[in-house]
Amino acid sequence: MTTTPTPTSAPERTTPRPRPDDARPAARPPADAAPAAGPAGAPALLRSVFRRHASGVAVVTAAGEYPAGFTATSVSSVAAEPPLVSFGVGTGSSSWPVVAGAEYVGIHILGEHQQELAATFARSGADRFAAPTGWRSGPEGVPLLDGVLAWLVCRVVARVPAGDHRIVIAEVVTGDPAGDGRPLLYHQGRFNALRD
After folding, report:
1. What is the secondary structure of the chain as a DSSP string?
2. Of 37, 96, 138, 167, which shows the fewest CB atoms inside 10 Å?
3. How many CA atoms lie less than 13 Å away from 65 in the CB half-sphere?
4. What angle do CA 190, 79, 162 make, to 5 degrees?
């Protein structure tokens, strides 16, 4: 009967043992990479990054002593049950005093044919509801814009402080999704049409 000798020590490892994370050399950014912005440069970094983010264009309206509205690229669907949307508004904007006191707001999804309307509602000091802007008083007295792809009237449920803005959360009350056309986009500081 033959026996196989049992080794007295473990065989040598042919692969190196992994080092603990704290022993690994730090990864270096490529030589041509832009340095990360510190707190002072963070606002510019945020703007630069989001210029590359294509977003839909909407106009938010509200009624107070006078109708108010502004162009927004921050409109988002938040929840389906209950149906909630959100948008950001600067507290230094001319529309904020009206939005701050409004119980209801209108949200209008703009079409690619409405670049001038988007520019009007984005322009500081403009009489946004003067001709050629077409609008009417809608449900709950909310100003409704003509010719949009879709609109909602929503009841404001929260205004959340967020730096120099407020995030407004509102519950959908009524609306119309049946407008004709293709959406208007905002990208690299310009209004653009959707390309196939």
Report:
1. ---PPPPSSPPPPSSPPPPPGGGSPPP---TTSPPPP-GGGHHHHHHHHHHTS-EE-EEEEEESSSEEEEEES--EEEETTTTEEEEEEETTSTTHHHHHH-SEEEEEEPBGGGHHHHHHHHSTT--TTSTT--EEE-GGG-EEETT-SEEEEEEEEEEEEETTEEEEEEEEEEEE----S-BEEEETTEEEE---
2. 37
3. 5
4. 60
Neighbours of 82 (CB within 10 A): 9
Q: Which residues lie below 8 Å from residue 146, measured CB to CB, with a gap of 6+?
A: 134, 135, 136
Sign, CA dihedral 179-185-189-190, equals negative
Segments in the chain below pLDDT 70: 1-40, 196
Express each pLDDT in 27-72 by its tens digit.
554 545 455 556 667 888 877 887 777 789 999 999 999 999 999 9
pLDDT computed for residue 15 by the predictor: 42
The pTM for the full model equals: 0.76
